[in-house]
């Protein structure tokens, strides 16, 4: 087998054989295929696609490139959630302890933010002492003792995806449905969860900009999970407006704790409860009421134990930014649009995100929203507050927000 014939086949729209796929994924993981050759193949896949058989085989080969975790020793059924990423998407933080409080075990292997989208691990690392990297034994220990664990995926899990994802990130080949679906599902299947709920985001702040693309991605991932014996369901949710009222690491932890305390923005509470119900259903738990577990403090108890078990202090004050700048409404009326992508880029430029994988992030940086689409604003009232430790970053963030919102005439009805 040689890689050039594989690249030529995909370039000329000939479906890859099972043997070609197995060999390619294995050879790339071993370092026998060069990055420039894999980039050419990834671009050919992006342009010419893959059929369902090819995607299923590619996913299986990525799973086989590493280890698989086994949660069969746990007394509870396992349930996991994956979001395809967005702005202000802190849902994993309240969701994992909530679903654990309802009786499932939630192994939430999460990632870091890249570009304009935030990452769950970056958010949790703003809690003093909290540790993202756990050994497999520690992961099982925290999961067994608290019911939920949120941590980094170990190096042994789908190593082919780690290498390929880093390459796609720098070669303009992220936005290919076969590659996104196989990347996400290889990690989730190797992780060993029994059930999985996918939150497939759609809109300006998401990878998938149209409902059609989001639906195709969702259907592909559900069929991959189902074929591997994981009970998988998907929700399509909007990502044209940021979720909640914060985008940025410590700011989002603060908002998540508000949700766990029974408050928080309505859209965050609503999505947390919807995903919790689907996760419990998929895990076969039919008698729990997540709204009650949020209201009676049980979810908060699990959160505190989960954070402490990973070295964090749930009572420690969260970092606050050295500098803030408030942007005010230029006119009186109804906020009719607040663009998720622009707010995400602003948070990123303030220091909440990174441009390269190895960059540090600022725990306290980000954007706080004072109004959401549908709200009435008056000229001069606060619209957004920008937070950063580096004052010079305000200019770039304000630039990103240049056309981030529209204000319609007073009394206009806005579809939110
Ligand atoms: N998240 C992943 O894990 N992989 C992708 O390809 C895109 C988003």
From TrEMBL:
SMART domains (UniProt xref): PYNP_C
Enzyme class: transferase
Pyrimidine nucleoside phosphorylase C-terminal domain location: 334-408
One of the record's GO molecular function terms: thymidine phosphorylase activity
Endpoints of the signal sequence: none
InterPro entries, per database record: Glycosyl_Trfase_fam3, Glycosyl_Trfase_fam3_N_dom, Glycosyl_Trfase_fam3_N_dom_sf, Nuc_phospho_transferase, PYNP-like_C_sf, PYNP_C, Pyrmidine_PPas_bac/euk, Pyrmidine_PPase_CS
The enzyme's E.C. designation: 2.4.2.4
Keywords for the protein's UniProt record, in alphabetical order: Glycosyltransferase, Transferase
Binding partners and assembly: Homodimer.
Annotated family: Belongs to the thymidine/pyrimidine-nucleoside phosphorylase family.
Name of protein: Thymidine phosphorylase
Organism listed in the record: Streptomyces rutgersensis
């Amino acid at each position: 087998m040689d890689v050039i014939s594989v690249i030529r086949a995909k370039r000329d729209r000939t479906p890859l054989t099972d043997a070609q796929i197995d060999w390619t994924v294995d050879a790339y993981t071993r370092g026998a295929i060069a990055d420039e050759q894999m980039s050419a193949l990834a671009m050919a896949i992006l342009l010419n696609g893959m059929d369902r058989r090819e995607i299923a085989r590619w996913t299986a080969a990525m799973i086989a490139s590493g280890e698989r975790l086994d949660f069969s020793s746990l007394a509870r059924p396992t349930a996991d959630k994956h979001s395809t990423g967005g702005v202000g998407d802190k849902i994993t933080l309240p969701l994992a302890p909530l679903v654990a409080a309802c009786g499932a075990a939630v192994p939430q292997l999460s990632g870091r933010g890249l570009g304009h989208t935030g990452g769950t691990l970056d958010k949790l690392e703003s809690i003093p002492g909290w540790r993202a990297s756990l050994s497999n034994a520690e992961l099982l220990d925290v999961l067994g003792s608290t019911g939920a664990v949120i941590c980094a995926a170990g190096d042994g899990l789908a190593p082919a995806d780690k290498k390929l994802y880093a390459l796609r990130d720098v070669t303009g080949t992220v936005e290919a449905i076969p590659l996104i679906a196989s990347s996400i599902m290889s990690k989730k299947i190797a992780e060993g969860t029994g059930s999985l709920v996918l939150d497939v985001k759609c809109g300006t702040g998401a990878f998938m900009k149209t409902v059609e693309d989001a639906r195709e991605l969702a259907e592909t991932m559900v069929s991959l999970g189902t074929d591997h014996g994981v009970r998988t369901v998907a929700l399509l949710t909007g990502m044209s407006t940021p979720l909640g009222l914060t985008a940025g690491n410590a700011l989002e932890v603060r908002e998540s704790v508000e949700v766990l305390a029974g408050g928080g923005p309505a859209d965050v509470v609503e999505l947390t409860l919807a995903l919790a119900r689907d996760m419990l259903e998929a895990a076969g738990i039919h008698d729990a009421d997540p709204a009650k577990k949020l209201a009676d403090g049980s979810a908060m108890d699990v959160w505190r134990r989960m954070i402490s078990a990973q070295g964090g202090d749930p009572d420690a004050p969260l970092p606050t930014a050295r500098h803030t700048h408030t942007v005010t409404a230029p006119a009186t009326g109804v906020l009719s649009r607040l663009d998720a992508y622009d707010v995400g880029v602003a948070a990123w430029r303030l220091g909440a995100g990174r441009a390269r994988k190895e960059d540090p992030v600022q725990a306290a940086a980000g954007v706080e929203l004072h109004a959401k689409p549908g709200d009435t604003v008056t000229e001069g009232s606060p619209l957004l507050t920008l937070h950063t430790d580096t004052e010079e970053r305000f200019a770039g963030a304000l630039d990103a927000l240049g056309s981030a919102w529209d204000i319609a005439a007073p009394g206009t009805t806005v579809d939110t």
